[in-house]
């Protein structure tokens, strides 16, 4: 529902009855306790338009109906590329936001799905924010920062653009390491324009962070981690496709995110690990997995990987293996990638060496290989699938160009008890 209609609803927050207008913001004029603090209002602004903020505000109870807020995604000069992975992911899958358009002047006029090689989605790539606003039926609810540069920071031009979006009445979703909610300039604009800033990577207070407890042993269903041979190689996409494919089969699968894009897409469980002090990473992931298990009672849990265990620039893969204790691993590899992202002097590892490292580091088994087909023809993908299956002795597939059923088959072959669960559910 767009602002202008008067379908209001209310909920209780902090002992106060809060009335929400159709745009999801608290209406102080009709609130049972008009003397709400600025902090109270800041929390309520995100309610109906943000169904997944419980990680940062555990006292908030989500409304029974999950509404998708409208959003434009900023990805200037990077859409379809490695540093555009957040925007790429949101075009492919978004439970939380209705993506109206992507901003990238270099690819303006194209369909976002076509740019990604997935076929038309009806989401246009537009030149700038003005074009995005002209295309939208009303001012979008959110402006999402869809770039993921290695620096994790906004340029001066990008800062000005985000502030302008706020001035126009859009709330901000930011997945960078730079927390805009801590910046006085952005904070002042959010108060002046009654908009919110969601810093997805910002961890909970240090006193609330959890260390590893060993409770992962209580999670009795199979846990599968999707790891990779490099960063930005498709681990989250493969994990998402695998989760969907298993659920479509009647096998209840739950996705646990470990990065900013998965959380922006709407992952109910997970945490952005690369922003958490290393002492707490395995514990935070363990706690998220235990929560998913206790709340959902799934047949299987799929854990998103980060970076690569062999990559010297990223340590999160080791912490994911420690925190999740996966029973199995699906490895993502890009045969057409000559060197690591952003590291031209660092050649890509082979799947075999990465598999050996993973299985030496953790008590787990690599059950299959997922191929990223960048820089490859379909014929080359087919040849790579056959070659790796022969060399590695495990199933291989390309999750995007081949049927998702192949991923589900991969998991069911490694964990035959999942087939038994499915059969029992049909009886």
Strand order of the main beta sheet, please? 11-10-12-9-13-16-17
Helix content: 25-40%
* Main sheet specs: 7 strands, parallel
Outline the low-pLDDT stretches: 1-65
Structural class: alpha/beta
- Averaging pLDDT over every residue, what do you get? 86
SS strand fraction: 15-25%
Specify the oligomeric state. single chain
Shape: globular
Distance between the termini: 42 Å
Count up the helices: 14
Tell me the total number of β-strands.
Answer: 17
Tell me the Rg in angstroms. Answer: 22 Å
What features would you describe in this structure?
There is one protein chain. The protein has 427 residues and is α/β, with parallel strands linked by helices. It has 14 helices and 17 strands. The strands form four sheets. A seven-stranded parallel sheet has the order 11-10-12-9-13-16-17, sandwiched between helices. A six-stranded parallel sheet has the order 5-4-3-6-7-8, with helices on both faces. Helix 9 packs across helix 10. The longest helix has 19 residues. The protein is globular and about 55 Å long. The two termini are 42 Å apart. 48% of the residues are buried. The N terminus is likely disordered.
